[in-house]
Each structure stands twice: as C-alpha cells, then as structure tokens.
Predict the 3D structure of the following.
Amino acid sequence: MVKVLASKTGLAFGLAALCSVFAPTTLHAQDDSTIGYRMAAGDTLIGVSQEYVIGRDAAARLARLNRIQNPRRIPIGTVIRIPRDQLVYRPAGLAVLSSRGPVTIDGVEASQGAELREGAVVQTGPGGFVSFQTVDGAAISLPSNTLARLERSRIYLLRDLRDVHFRILSGRGEVIAPTLRDDERWQTSTPVSVTAVRGTVYRVGYSEEAELGLTEVVEGSVAVTADEAATVAQEGFGVVVVDEGLSPPEALLPPPEIENANAIQTGEAVAFEIALPEGAVALRTQLATDAGFLELFAEDISSEGAAFTDLPNGRYFIRSRGISANGLEGLSAPVAENFRRKRLGSEASVEASPIEDGYRFAWLPQGEGTTHFAFQLWREGESDAPLYDEIALPGSATVVTGLEPGTYVWRVAAIQADEEDGLLKIWGSEQRLAVSAE
C-alpha cells in the first residue's frame, strides 16, 4: 500500500464551529494510531472524553489505554493518547474544483462544488478529468481512466487536526500537499507501497494489470517503503514498486521541448511538435485552462508530438512530460506555456463553370465570426507572378475564364479582424488545376 504523508500550506480552520457539526459516523477503516492530548489545569478524563471522543464509555476506554489508575487525579502536563478512530470529527472539505467529461462519484455525475465524502468512489472515463481542493489550496487531480476512493476525510475537534487518506486503485493522481502540523496526516495510497512526505508536490500511479506502483517527486522529497524495504526519493526522482520490491530512486526524464507552444492554433486539429527526451518511449501532453493544471481540459498520450481535436476557441496552457519504459513520468517545464485556440480556415473546391471557358472556385468558412476571403492563382512554377491575387472577395465563389492550357496552382485564405491579434490571415493548402486544350 502507498501512503503519502504530505505537507505544504497550513489550515485556517478554527475551533469556533459548533459541536453539532462534529457528528460520529461509521468508520471506513480501522486505524490504531493515536493523537496526544496534554492535560491542562482543570481538565478531567471525563471532560476530555466527553468533548473529543466518540461513545459513552470513552473515559473508561481512555483510562485502560493509558493505564490510568485514578482518572480523577491526573497530573497537569500528562499526555494521554487518544485513538484516531475514536475522535469526534467533521468532514475535511475536499470539494470538486473542476470536472470535465465522464466523471462519476459513487456512480453519479460529478458537479462543481460537490463535497467528496468519506468512502466515496471516484471514476474518470476516457477524456474525463476531475480535481478536488480544500479551502487552503491542497488539491488532488485525477486524469482520464482513473479509479480512486476517499478512505478518510476528517478534521478532528481536537486541535482542528486534519486527517485525509486518498487511495488510487488504478490510474494516476497528482497531489499538491498541504502543510501539516504535528499529528496531522495527508495520505495517498496505492496497493503496493507507502510514501511518506512533508511539504511536496508529487504524483502517484498504479497499474492494476502490471501490479506496478509509481511515485514521482516534483517538489520536496519522499520516503518510499514496500514490505520491509525503504528508500528516499528527492525532488526530480521517482521510484518503481513491483512484487519483487522497490527500485532505487532514478532521475525523472527532463522536460520535453514544445516547439510551437505559443502559436495561434487555427487548424482543424490543434497540433504540437514535441521531441521525445532521451530515454522516453512516449509523451503525456495535457491542456488546462489554468496554469496550475487543476482544471484539466484534454490530454494526449503518443510517441510523437501531440494533437487534439474538437478544441473550442479560447486560451489554454500546455505541458508535456516523457514516459520512460518502466512507466515513470518525467518533469514538465516549470512554467507552463500558453497558447490561443481560434479556429479559422476555409474549405475550397473548383469545378467547371456554366460560363464558357470558365472555372468556378468556391469556398466555405471554417470557424466562428465574420470571415472574408483572399484568392490567388498562378501558373505552376511562377508563384512570384500570380495571375489572380484578390483580397476580400465578396460572396463565396469567383469565376475565372480564359485560362490557357497548362497546370495552375491556387489557394484561398480566410481573413478575420481580431481584437487580440489584429488581422488574421490563414491560407489553405495549395491545390492544382489542369487545363487541357479542347
């Protein structure tokens, strides 16, 4: 089992919440770990147990656990241990920040703002993405084809301590961990290893088919254990866990270079040229509407470049990382590139015109907004001397007559006035027309 004890951005919850919101509920998993409480002046075992512990016989249970002979005479400063599973708590407040595509929580379609309850099962399908966040910015993001369960989601009434355990059953999860105080926990698990973290950004993956666990450290450091073996992975390193044990930490692949990351994407498909880093067998490329990639929009896994279809107009951030042969995913560039998507183009065709000796060149706009068109035609091999070079043609076609026998090249451009980028002019592909002698 993988457990990630993490820490990054502290809690702001106070103890002002009414006790009625701290309702005892059915426990999903037994936990024999304890939290210490230091007895202060005026404290009694009965008073402490009534305020912080579930059950009518709480004082007796605490007395037995802590081997207290006289519950009425406990010295000030004595630390008593209280089992986590017996503490009164309220939900930790992981809520859906962003959801796109097929995502369900306990079989119901995910909705923004919905709180993820303890025991909930989350599933993302192909093209599905979801992220959860607490009020202080701790977050978990799940890409497509992931199955996970929230095992524990608690803020104890005792010192407002947080205790969260998120389990990746298959697929992947990326975590921005919170800053933890003493006795707080933020755990991420898979079935094959345990990773302990304090203050980090990391990724956890599990392949059910290969029974393969992965931990990749983006910031900070982690301690990974499997059975009796243990190792430490620093920032920029990853660990693979299999039945035979865990691998020594290995350096994550460097960020790939995205050659045209900032170009305006006007084509039918949004495509990027990305070189595989040395040692990579594939790339995972992701698009998001935010620079932190908590609002994932699409991803592509391929061995060469990346392409996305049906992408709406808008601004997006892109990041890519290499995937090694053993499944570890590498680093992305520290600052995500952003680009603009604006579909603009034309669909053009040519046919014989009813007018004698004429050809009708026609076009239709692709994309949204008011579009004008340009038309060029030249004899093959003479592109520097076009026979026609028309801009802002009216209508959706033009007729050309009097062409002598030979081969001609022609193309159509779609033109739009754009508030952000000025005048956009996108030429379509060059096409050829053979004119024969009658």
Summary: The chain has two helices and 35 strands. Residues 45-52 form the longest helix (8 residues).
